[in-house]
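Task: sequence in, structure out. Protein: Glycolipid transfer protein domain-containing protein.
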Amino acid sequence: MATQAYPPGGTFFDTAKRSFTAVPVNKSKDNAISTTEFLEASESLTKLFDVLGSVAFKPVASDMTGNIKKIRDRQLSSPIDSETLQDLVLNELKTKKHTATEGLVWLVRGLDFTSQALRKNLSNPSEELSTSFRDAYGNTLKPHHSFMIKPLFSAAMSATPYRKDFYAKLGDNQERVQKELGEWLSALEERVGILKEFLGRKECKY
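Result:
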């Protein structure tokens, strides 16, 4: 089981390199999202799967990490064209490649899955994590997964810890945990929504 890595009174969110609340969105530029900060926040989110504490979540975390790498590789190879995620996608597609764009599509699906699961659980105090995660999986990733991948992810959904154990691992001050999780989720949901709308546009098809 994962152990807490934060001092008494602290929370999981204190340990994050970056929260989604600190990922800039430029509303005057079609909700452009800063690439570097978004990738840092996404990497911090993958640590949440350590808190879930099951080896079954390894495929979920490694899938996200792999997609983050695809996006970062493109950013490093063409930094001026990749300051925002939207610029990165449109400039990559001009080169007739779509490795990073596809990575972002899958990363957004993974983030959508995580945010839906945690939002459902936070909003339903009597619901166990396994139910919340299973429902979110059906709404987000499952329709896109092959019959070989589905059992791996289904196993992860069934291996979630008990609700009370999970929230206890996020911090010993539950009032603070709930508040910070709610703020983090709202920021994540806003950015996922922006990217889903953007990636659904005709110019983003590959």
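The mean pLDDT is 92.
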